[in-house]
């Protein structure tokens, strides 16, 4: 009887230990979202299954395949004092990702110091994607700052991408404001070019330590884009496409302010982001029909088509001017060569006649010839 009790006690002990070990292993393997700086709530947790990747120690990539459209992923970094506002903003991005089945990457801790975390996080994802086969990797990444709010989740990101017929390969879509480049929102093609581009930005302050970067990594990106190998493959887009602000910054010519139907609003340069984000999320939730509409109900498609067609037309004009310039230069060069050849031929005839005349003169002055004449 005692042996039976001892046996049962041993079995129970083994079962308890096994359950404890398994629980520890499961906790170790799963993303530690319960300790994350940014807690997403039950809605985000349900969306995260198959769409969003959140992990403190690295990235997990969950990609939805099977579409003939370019595969696009969204990526952001969110941590710090503005946690409540960032959580509200992120919820709008998750809803957008759910509608269009975009994988979304969130990093909620620092990889390196300051705002340079942006390029470091992007480079991490780009390198991971490049290790995959082309059929399994994303084609584009859309970077969004944590202080951006999706106001129209019905807008697909594919609408902004350059057409396949475009005259050159485009690897970066960006916008500018009154301060120059603003990299709060931009599109980056997953490619070796992107890897080199991001690496150049991250290395900039190391190799140019004496240069002042007023907007840190954003200024470094602007400087790197001045290099031909990067600038040639980047296209500046209208800010209202995907990087609109809550106001136009007082610029009477270029309008940056967000309008109903546009994709998102970016709270760049605003001090109390939590209050501003809360105000705009409140507007959205109070009257979604005013802000949200299908892309066909906006002027996005027409405006974007005209934009890319205009760039193609401008390129064609520049190409014709270049060819005309080269043609004229060749004609001038040919004409100059003909003149040079004619002058050379004339000088050659003169040089050929002159020796005969000199010989005749020499003979006339020869004393021996005079003696015998």
Automatic annotation (TrEMBL):
<dbReference type="InterPro" id="IPR008630">
    <property type="entry name" value="Glyco_trans_34"/>
</dbReference>
<feature type="compositionally biased region" description="Basic and acidic residues">
    <location>
        <begin position="356"/>
        <end position="373"/>
    </location>
</feature>
<keyword id="KW-0808">Transferase</keyword>
<keyword id="KW-0328">Glycosyltransferase</keyword>
<dbReference type="GO" id="GO:0000139">
    <property type="term" value="C:Golgi membrane"/>
</dbReference>
<comment type="similarity">
    <text>Belongs to the glycosyltransferase 34 family.</text>
</comment>
<dbReference type="GO" id="GO:0016757">
    <property type="term" value="F:glycosyltransferase activity"/>
</dbReference>
<dbReference type="Pfam" id="PF05637">
    <property type="entry name" value="Glyco_transf_34"/>
</dbReference>
<dbReference type="GO" id="GO:0006487">
    <property type="term" value="P:protein N-linked glycosylation"/>
</dbReference>
<protein>
    <recommendedName>
        <fullName>Galactosyl transferase GMA12/MNN10 family protein</fullName>
    </recommendedName>
</protein>
<feature type="compositionally biased region" description="Basic and acidic residues">
    <location>
        <begin position="323"/>
        <end position="337"/>
    </location>
</feature>
<dbReference type="InterPro" id="IPR029044">
    <property type="entry name" value="Nucleotide-diphossugar_trans"/>
</dbReference>
<feature type="region of interest" description="Disordered">
    <location>
        <begin position="323"/>
        <end position="373"/>
    </location>
</feature>
